[in-house]
């Protein structure tokens, strides 16, 4: 039985009771109209093999077959072919509810439907191989989930008119870069760091200067291992997936170089410089050997990188001043460099994946597409709610508003327009919560941006501004006891956000100074220079354009050379057939120079005139041989 069979008394209590009964009976999927509710069983169910792919193929969503995620994918696929319209599948839920696995199952079924027998295009396998690559670099262990996506992605699968996959595009949203430099209790950094440290060979460890995992400050020493996860095997699986997506061995080596440099940046330490001035708070690097290893991996000058980590250049009155960092500023600059490198690396990976998913036959896409949106779920980590949870929950508020708009508002307006007797369903409209975030100039995000640009502002003044502006807002609350926190009434419940612990101002700032960017742009490794380009897409497109023009001019030069050689050969053949024609200049010049050094610049011309006159005379050939110089 599905929930729709009891739609006459559908409410929250009956919905939850129905879900509980079905889950206890071993049914993890339930339909509510055209919506599929999935309850994460945290174990594998054998209902995703090719038998189930064939079972749900070209079947309408209904009571004939049990609810299944394959039915959603199949319904979207055949609706696209029948109605000639683009389709979209939105996956939403709390953190740990199984959104990433649901996305993988959807993509498996969508690509399986496209493969007609043995006539698959190969793009299908590339789409499936891109998943493990993005998960390794964008997923991490959190307090609620061992494989939590720390970024949102939208995958658009393009189809030909005959239903075959033609290509795909991946868009990413809001990578959690702050996780690179710090993690909460019971949390880890991104998976790829642990895969690399566990699976690298001895030769790779020496080349990348890898250390044991507990020696890196950017890795939480309390959570170095993951339960039921063979990270050495996952590293080999990652390399295999990267190869299938199009990452050559050289690209993988350069990529791992950057990963090792990011980890080593966390080990760079600073200490106050000895000075005779009491007010001098400048710092210097305690372990320059670590900076030397980073310089070797990134192919930059050690002295330049050392200077960029401890000082900055400021222009004033037309002059450039060098100002030494204080200890907090040096640490912030170091962490900003690590976050910038990893963020740029992730953008480059998405770019390479999209390049591999491009239409290989270069035919203009004339069919339709199916989009799958997999975005991070609503999060409430209790006392650890930070700036990241604020952004994630804001994104989920937008998703919930979209859901309300299309499922309730638009549908009920359509019923009224058609004159259907209908009693409006009451639902929680979260438009006011969105306005709390994004209204101008008093929204939370606007105030945060303003105070980030205001000198002397702190996290405490930020909280005071929030409280004074929004004290009467229905979606905003102050905690009952005095603490550096505020509460927002989200559609999924109240969430308390910490201000001082969250370091909202610091995390909202972009502390990547131009000095450090300049150091990376002067790297002798082209890969690093591409990473820190102003726009990775622009850099990639320029590389394609540059390669095109190089190829064009190479072919053009080769064509000119080939035509010239053919003309010379034709001229030489014609000269040998014509008995009394003057010899070819180039051949004569070579022969003449080989027989006798040229002492006079006009000697060759005099010989040419003389030989021509001799050839026209009676017995010219004999005379020409006789009078050879």
UniProtKB/TrEMBL annotation:
Coiled coil: none annotated. The lineage of its organism: Eukaryota, Metazoa, Ecdysozoa, Arthropoda, Hexapoda. The keyword Plastid does not apply. It is found in: Cytoplasm. This is Myosin motor domain-containing protein. Transmembrane segments: none annotated. InterPro entries: Kinesin_motor_dom_sf (IPR036961), Myo9 (IPR046987), Myosin_head_motor_dom-like (IPR001609), P-loop_NTPase (IPR027417). Residues 1-629 form the Myosin motor domain. ATP binds at residues 93-100. Its main location: cytoplasm. One of its GO terms (cellular component) is myosin complex. GO terms for biological process: anatomical structure morphogenesis; animal organ development; intracellular signal transduction; system development; tissue development. GO terms for molecular function: actin filament binding; ATP binding; GTPase activator activity; microfilament motor activity. Keywords: Actin-binding, ATP-binding, Cytoplasm, Motor protein, Myosin, Nucleotide-binding. Belongs to the TRAFAC class myosin-kinesin ATPase superfamily. Myosin family.
């Amino acid at each position: 039985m599905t929930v729709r069979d009891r739609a006459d008394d559908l409410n929250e209590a009956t919905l939850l009771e129905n879900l509980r009964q079905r889950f206890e009976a071993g049914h993890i999927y339930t339909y509510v109209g055209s919506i599929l509710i999935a309850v994460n069983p945290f174990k594998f169910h054998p209902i995703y093999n090719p038998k189930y792919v064939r079972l749900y193929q070209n079947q309408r969503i209904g009571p004939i077959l049990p609810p299944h995620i394959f039915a959603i994918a199949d319904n979207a696929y055949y609706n696209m072919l029948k109605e000639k319209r683009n389709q979209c599948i939105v996956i939403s839920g709390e953190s740990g509810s199984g959104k990433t696995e649901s996305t993988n199952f959807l993509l498996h079924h969508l690509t399986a439907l496209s493969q007609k027998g043995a006539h698959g295009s190969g793009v299908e396998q590339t789409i499936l191989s891109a998943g493990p690559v993005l998960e390794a670099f964008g997923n991490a262990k959190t307090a609620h989930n061992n494989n939590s996506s720390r970024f949102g992605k939208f995958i658009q699968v393009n189809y030909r008119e005959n239903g075959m996959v033609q290509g795909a595009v991946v868009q990413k949203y809001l990578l959690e870069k702050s996780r690179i430099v710090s993690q909460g209790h019971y949390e880890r950094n991104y998976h790829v760091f642990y895969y690399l440290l566990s699976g690298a060979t001895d030769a790779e460890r020496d080349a990348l200067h890898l250390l044991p995992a507990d020696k890196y400050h950017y890795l939480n020493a309390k959570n170095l291992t993951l339960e039921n996860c063979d990270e050495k095997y996952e590293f080999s699986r990652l390399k295999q997936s990267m190869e299938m997506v199009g990452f050559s061995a050289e690209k993988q080596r350069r990529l791992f170089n950057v990963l090792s440099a990011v980890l080593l940046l966390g080990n760079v330490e600073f200490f106050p410089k000895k000075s005779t001035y009491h007010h001098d708070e400048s710092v210097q690097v305690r372990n320059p050997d670590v900076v030397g290893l980073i310089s070797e991996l990134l192919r930059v000058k050690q002295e330049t990188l050392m200077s960029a980590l401890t000082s900055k250049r400021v222009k004033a009155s037309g002059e450039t001043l060098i100002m030494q960092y204080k200890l907090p500023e040096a640490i912030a600059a170091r962490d900003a460099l690590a976050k910038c490198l990893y963020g740029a690396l992730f953008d480059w990976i998405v770019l390479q994946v999209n390049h591999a998913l491009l239409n290989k036959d270069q035919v203009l896409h004339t069919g339709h597409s199916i989009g799958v949106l997999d975005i991070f779920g609503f999060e409430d980590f209790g006392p650890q709610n930070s700036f990241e949870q604020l952004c994630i929950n804001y994104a989920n508020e937008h998703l919930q508003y979209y859901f309300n708009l299309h499922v309730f508002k638009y549908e009920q307006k359509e019923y009224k327009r058609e004159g259907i007797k209908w009693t409006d369903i009451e639902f929680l409209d979260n438009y006011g919560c969105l306005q709390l975030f994004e209204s101008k100039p008093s929204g939370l995000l606007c105030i945060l941006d303003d105070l980030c640009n205001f000198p002397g502002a702190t996290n405490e003044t930020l909280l005071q501004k929030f409280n004074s502006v929004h004290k009467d807002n229905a979606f905003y609350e102050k905690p009952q006891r005095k603490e550096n926190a505020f509460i927002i009434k989200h559609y999924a419940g109240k969430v308390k956000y910490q201000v001082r612990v969250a370091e909202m101002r610091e995390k909202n700032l972009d502390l990547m100074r131009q000095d450090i960017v300049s150091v990376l742009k002067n790297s002798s490794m082209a890969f690093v220079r591409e990473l820190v380009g102003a726009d990775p897409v622009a850099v990639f497109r320029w590389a394609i354009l540059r390669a095109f023009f190089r190829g064009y001019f190479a072919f053009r030069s080769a064509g000119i050379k080939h035509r010239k050689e053919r003309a010379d050969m034709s001229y030489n053949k014609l000269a040998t057939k014509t008995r009394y024609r003057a010899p070819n200049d180039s051949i004569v010049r070579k022969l003449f120079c080989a027989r006798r050094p040229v002492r006079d610049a006009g000697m060759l011309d005099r010989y040419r005139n003389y030989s021509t006159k001799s050839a026209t005379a009676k017995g010219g050939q004999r005379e020409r041989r006789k009078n050879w110089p």
